[in-house]
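Colleagues,

For the teaching module next term, I've prepared a clean inverse folding example: a structure given as tokens, and then the sequence designed for it. I'd like students to try predicting residues themselves before seeing the answer, so please don't circulate the second half yet.
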């Protein structure tokens, strides 16, 4: 997989925003898969700045969710639909009709999962899927030992993930839902260009096992090694566990600029 080491989170956000801008110039109605959490915020901020300056036209762009909590009431500020509307759709000036996601409040959650998987395919597939990574190597909410062929489905969150996400719920783990709908690893691998962003020393071990370790369900993100065009963007801290860091730096430095990510 392509590994790009950048100085810091801001540089990573700018680089990925440039890739999205280049994609939209080629395909104005591209479907962008977005992730939530604090890691991708620099991407959305850099892309919004490009929109404001007129450097990129997002008027026909479409956005889709990676995952959604199960059981939060409609309009809850920490539902991922609310987060994506607040952090992506509104700053980019997109209409809510351009946004699609799974229904975490549906009576039949299994049917909602299957419906979302079909909707992504019927929309032509995801052109660029932005991903974060958990400290245990999960992507989306595909926790360790998830099937590498899994489709969009309901998952039970591990205690560690609930602890990690409690900061979004007033540091109260009791408010964090126990279940989520997530795109499966098989679904994610169908995106044309998955782009994983990781920052901070806390992600260094997960990044190293994802990039340099074996493909294994215990490290779900390692499945990206199977994709023909997966990019991992990491800051220096997140790259600190990579044995081949110098090789990755040299390889990307030698890459023709016109190729982008």
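(Answer key — instructors only)
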């Amino acid at each position: 997989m392509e590994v790009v080491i950048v100085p810091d989170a801001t540089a990573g956000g700018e680089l990925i925003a440039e890739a999205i801008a280049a994609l939209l110039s080629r395909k104005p109605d591209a479907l962008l898969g977005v992730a939530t959490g604090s890691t991708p915020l620099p991407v959305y901020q850099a892309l919004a700045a490009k929109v404001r300056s007129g450097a990129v036209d997002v008027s026909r762009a479409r956005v889709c969710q990676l995952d959604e909590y199960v059981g939060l009431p409609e309009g809850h500020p920490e539902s991922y639909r609310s987060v994506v509307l607040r952090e992506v759709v509104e700053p980019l000036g997109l209409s809510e009709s351009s946004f699609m996601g799974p229904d975490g409040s549906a009576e039949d959650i299994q049917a909602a999962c299957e419906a979302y998987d079909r909707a992504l395919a019927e929309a032509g597939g995801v052109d660029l899927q932005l991903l974060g990574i958990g400290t245990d190597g999960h992507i989306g909410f595909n926790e360790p030992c998830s099937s590498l062929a899994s489709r969009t489905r309901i998952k039970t969150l591990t205690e560690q993930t609930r602890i990690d996400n409690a900061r979004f719920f007033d540091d109260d783990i009791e408010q964090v839902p126990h279940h989520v709908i997530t795109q499966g690893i098989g679904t994610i691998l169908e995106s044309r260009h998955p782009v994983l962003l990781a920052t901070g020393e806390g992600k260094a071990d997960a990044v190293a096992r994802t990039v340099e370790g074996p493909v294994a369900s215990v490290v779900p993100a390692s499945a990206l090694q199977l994709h023909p065009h997966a990019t991992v963007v990491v800051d220096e801290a997140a790259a600190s566990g990579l044995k081949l860091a110098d090789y990755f730096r040299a390889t990307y430095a030698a890459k023709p600029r016109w190729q982008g990510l």
